[in-house]
Amino acid sequence: MRFSGLAVAAAGLHLSVVAAQDGSQKPLDSNYGPSPKPEGTSGKQPNIIFILTDDQDLHLDSLDYTPLIKKHLIDQGTLYRRHYCTTAVCCPARVSLWTGRLAHNTNVTDVNPPYGGYPKFVSQGLNSNYLPIWLQEAGYNTYYTGKLFNAHTIFNYHLPYAAGWNGSDFLLDPFTYSYLGSRFQRNKEWPRSYKGQHSVDVLAEKAYGFLDDAVKDDRPFFIGIAPVAPHSNVEIASLDGDFDNIEDLVHFTPPIPAARHAHLFPDVKVPRTPHFNPDEPSGANWVRRLKKQSQENVDYNDHFYRQRLRTLQSVDELVDGLFERLGAKGLLENTFIIYTTDNGYHIGQHRLQPGKECGFEEDINIPLIIRGPGVAPGKIAEIVTTHVDLAPTILNLAGAPARADFDGEAIPLREKEIAAAATTRHEHVTVEYWGFAASEGKLFGKDEKRLILNNTYKALRIIGEDYNFYYSVWCTNDHELYDLKTDPYQLHNLLHSDEEAKVPATFLGVSFDKVVSRLDALLFVLKSCKAQTCVRPWHALHPAGNVLNLRDALSERFDYFYGTQQKKVSYDRCELGYIIDSEGPQFETDGLVYRHGARWDEWA
């Protein structure tokens, strides 16, 4: 295989020297009115600090090892325990976060061209139509330091410059994931090497500097801070050559902590949950064919896990430094601090090597913590939230109008708003992925591969008072269904032939097949939804408004509609990106709407 220039595909590191043309467009006009001023804020627009880590887990207990984040954010803010990314890999997740749109609507579905990365972000017209632009229009000064997107490189950072920032200092590929060899590019200056300095420590000083810059002006400010921790360390072995193996191009290691943290947690291991390296296979498609890991493999992955925790200590210190400075400058009373990550991570669950890109909870259910004026301290919220809700949330805080093309809605922040949302907010998450999965740890089996193709799938998570499901359809047309009420570790795929004995006679008081038909119809809408249809998908199926959730849809009067009339989710073939004619029937052309009172023989 010929790899030209920096065309490298691996584990969140996809680089390109393709010169991107600026296909930018003006922001869409909004048909929504201005959002109400958030309760608990002063008349002045609040400042906003957004901290975005890389590949941080929720389910592997990373937050238990960050005492300063706990002190400043969890104890003084709200932890949203059911927050989800919608695409479990870096660039698509970040583009969805900054645009409020799902990946099938941004068409940034990979971390590398032709289907993703910074050049794709630019060519889709998003460089002039994303959050920092809208915040500047709302009167904010905006700053950013750290990783913005993949394939944002030392070769293309000015083709064009990332728009919307009053001040910026970006990590650039191919050095983004080199903890001791990073390169940053400030404003419109040349990239600068920080070889020998720890990347997160360098970034912390840049973040503090932007805070100093921000307070010099009377305008409200937004500061984005994006450390690469705890992503794996990746070093480029070669920039050009003929290679049959990606190992010849890039070298993966566990993340590298700062020297002062390298001795910590010597005996800590990956949590030994029931789905950690299980005796029996689980999942579907290629995941179900994984072999049980050897003890040598498990020991190495425990080391990988410790390195992640050690590397996060620098982020913990960065957060502490921010709060020290915010307090000294008298800014805490009017500043919101949002802490999250782009996607989650797995190590050993379902026999998986370290990585992400799957639809399991470890990969999609991720940390979100918000602290600020009026936010109740020490609270845990159980409402469903997603990355496409964050841009609407931030614009709401800024007092700016919502966007007509948002696929999400603002997250309730105050205690009484969260309580009200428990009965009114959407209960679903759209999950989608295209392309490959990557193993970032050490490869132990002779047949083991770094990259696994045919990892394209569409899925949904739906969480109600008495149900909790994950349903997915792969591009191979394999199906998955987990009942997380009875199987929280997703060990038993109820749609796999090997698990038939575990299929219950009834689900939620109806037959198993009836529940599956409703979940498939909901996914049928979500896999190609746009704007408010993504927020209120049941309304697309039942425009009369008599179905608001899964429980409503299970009424027997809809059995024929869901069981016989509605087309099913399927793929025509596997592709590495969003190619519409590979994705089977679409709701816009092939789906049905339930018409109350209509005779079935009148349907065309």
UniProtKB/TrEMBL annotation:
Highest taxon above the source species: Eukaryota
Keywords for the protein's UniProt record, in alphabetical order: Glycoprotein, Hydrolase, Signal
Pfam families registered for this protein in UniProt: Sulfatase
One of the GO BP terms on file: phenol-containing compound metabolic process
Enzyme class of the recorded protein, top EC level: hydrolase
EC number, as in UniProt: 3.1.6.1
Disordered: annotated span: 24-44
PROSITE patterns xrefs: SULFATASE_1 (PS00523)
Molecular function via GO: arylsulfatase activity; glycosaminoglycan binding; N-acetylglucosamine-6-sulfatase activity
Domain Sulfatase N-terminal: 46-400
Catalytic reaction(s) noted: an aryl sulfate + H2O = a phenol + sulfate + H(+)
Signal peptide: 1-20
Gene3D superfamilies tied to this protein: Alkaline Phosphatase, subunit A
Modified residues (3-oxoalanine (Cys)): 90
Record PTM: The conversion to 3-oxoalanine (also known as C-formylglycine, FGly), of a serine or cysteine residue in prokaryotes and of a cysteine residue in eukaryotes, is critical for catalytic activity.
Family of the protein in this entry: Belongs to the sulfatase family.
Protein name listed in UniProt: Arylsulfatase
Species name: Lasiosphaeris hirsuta
Species lineage: Eukaryota, Fungi, Dikarya, Ascomycota, Pezizomycotina
